[in-house]
Amino acid sequence: MSPPETVNTAPPDPAAASAPIRILLVEDDDGDALLVEELLNVSGARVEIVRAQTLAVARREKLDQIDCVLLDLDLPDAHGLAALHRLKNDRADLSVLVLTGFDDERRGIEAVTAGAQDYLVKGQIDGQGLARAVRYAVERRRAEEARQQLEVARLHQEENARLERGLLPAPLVTDPELLLTAQYRPGRQRALLGGDFYDAVQVADGTVHAVIGDVSGHGPDAAALGVCLRIAWRTLVLGTGEADGVLPTLQIVHEAERHFAWMFTTLAMITIAPDRASVSVRLAGHPPPLLLSGDEITALEPAQVNPPLGVVDDARWAALEYALPETWALLLYTDGLIEGRTGIGSGRLGGEGLEAMVRGLQDEDAPGLVTALVERAEELNGGPMLDDVAAFLVQRR
Fold first, then answer.
1. What is the Cα 249 distance to its own chain's centre?
2. pLDDT score, position 190
């Protein structure tokens, strides 16, 4: 049996797509095949026709490169719907138009029921009608492919959203005197999780440890590393109950888990004493927490700047102790909150701008404060921040 050959390339049709429609004509009758080719030629449709005289030859074609099949139902090696079934088994999404005789419309209807896009009666269709039927069949298949791709994307998005929700922190703090509230806005559009992370854990002696961090970069790599670091931090704190060795060990995890050598992470860790009268602060290149007490706002900023995780080998992060008043709140945040514009030129909010904003919002309750801070920062910025934003408030009631 001779292989299929390209027998016609019709003149271009300006209304058609830029690439010609590739048609596989499966027809054993030379006269009928010539008629189909001439009809398409006269129509001006931009097509490329490949002829196969038997089903066996047609199935040897690269069906993934075929846009539409014109299929005769009476072939030497297949009769009736058998040819359609075999082609659809080879490629389920193949667009097939069946060709029937004057007295055989019933089989055409059966073919549509079995998966053909349409049926055409030989001798009852002109060139324009044939070209239109081919284009409709191709576009219906493309529309169905697009719908399926959108459905797959929707399912993936829902799956990712469920995964990201499951990875968001649920702080393990049982002290009824402490209220923890947070606002989290990932910079990635439509994402739930970014490279910023936060968490809090209360250990057996009543000490409360809290952390906030910011992985450099954006996208899923930063988000994955952020989740890894948060879980590692929680495990280290719960496993040891001590704060001193957490950051050096976390740096080892950081270097092992980061996807790129240039990635680093800034981090602030606080440890609140069981009597809630003091706090120790460890900063790894991160903005300092703010201590809020009455009208007073104090940045708990060390004199010496310590490096982020992933920058300096064998780095150490010293703890600084601060006394806490009777009532207090500690605000931890990532730099995405202070790097937004202020609406005046190219100026940024900065740490001083954040303190001024907090003073203006101190009448808010704790949940309202962190929400208002992020919303106000976005308002000044003229819209959502490009970077991830996290604000985490630990308050003694």
1. 31
2. 52
Q: Write down the H helix ranges in the chain.
A: 30-43, 55-59, 82-90, 105-113, 127-167, 220-240, 246-257, 350-360, 366-381
Q: Is the pTM of this model over 0.85?
A: no
Distance CA 331, CA 182 (A): 10
Give which of 263, 303, 297 is closest to 283, Cα–Cα. Answer: 303
Structural domains present in the chain:
5-148 (3.40.50.2300), 170-396 (3.60.40.10)
Whether the Cβ atoms of residue 95 and residue 140 lie closer than 8 Å to each other? yes
Query: Among residues 350, 227, 233, 326, which one has the least CA distance to residue 284?
Result: 233
CA distances in angstroms from 251 to 175, 228, 264, 281, 289, listed in the order given = 30, 12, 9, 17, 21
Q: What is the pLDDT of residue 324?
A: 97
* Stretches in the chain below the pLDDT threshold 50: 1-17
Residue found by looking up tokens 């659809």 in the block: 88
Three-state DSSP state, 208? strand
Tens digit of each residue's pLDDT (9 = 90 or more) over 47-57:
999 999 999 99
CA–CA separation, 371 vs 181, rounded Å?
9
Three-class SS state of 197: strand
- Name the burial class of residue 104, with classes exposed (0-12), middle (13-18) and buried (19+) by CB atoms within 10 angstroms of its CB: middle
Helix, strand or coil, per DSSP, at residue 352: helix
Q: Is the C-alpha dihedral spanning 35, 38, 43, 46 positive or negative?
A: positive
Question: Helix, strand or coil for residue 107?
Answer: helix
User: Rounded to 5 degrees, what angle do the CA atoms 330, 373, 198 make?
Assistant: 50
End-to-end CA separation in angstroms for the chain = 88
